[in-house]
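ok trying again, last paste got cut off:
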Amino acid sequence: MRWHVLGSASGLTVANRFHSAYLLEDAGKFLLIDAGGGTSRALAKLEKPLLPIEAVLISHTHPDHAAGLPLLLQFMMMSKRTAPLDIFLPAFYKDFFAEQLYRFYIFPEKWPFPIRIHALEKTFDFWNSLRVTLFPTGHLSAAADLARLHGVGAESYGFRFEAGGSTFIYTSDILSVEAISPGIPAADWLMIEGAHTSLEEICRLAVEKKIDHVRVTHIPP
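nice, full thing came through this time. structure:
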């Protein structure tokens, strides 16, 4: 299991980093985790941009984590992709995104590959060797009242990946370290965001949970 950083910027667009996007590689296959602005360009810069991306997982629908999705689909289409693509989204966003595709003129009758849209589940498996487990981050809790007023949800998740005896945790955006602590076990690697917490809190979490390696992402300029 390998982790590739495509974009690590905070919510503020900067010249030298793309917004949140990561590739998880396992058994020669890839998952794209989040698809913020610049995701397609980051993929295009790779030596082999047409990686066998099996699926896309979106942690929450802030633009810096999800706004790159429509352009990613266009990039794949113009790169002559034919294999189906599975996209996993917070449940409240699933039907909205399916409708949104029509407004981007992405119609299944003309698109060269099937786009299969799913609601995120608590636990699911890929290619019989990779297990993904969700945990809530509380990141959108401050917007929950307004979200309900406007008929949308306020779901936000981190992901725990397990393969070959190794565990990798990606928190995505969080409310606080305390909010995510129940969902984090001992792990080989933790990638945690730095815009909504402090290094002291991150270090305490790593010691408490017996995490071997920590990387901090989503750091404001």
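cool. The chain is about 25% helix and 30% strand. Helices lie at 39-44, 63-66, 69-78, 91-103, 144-149, 177-180, 199-209.
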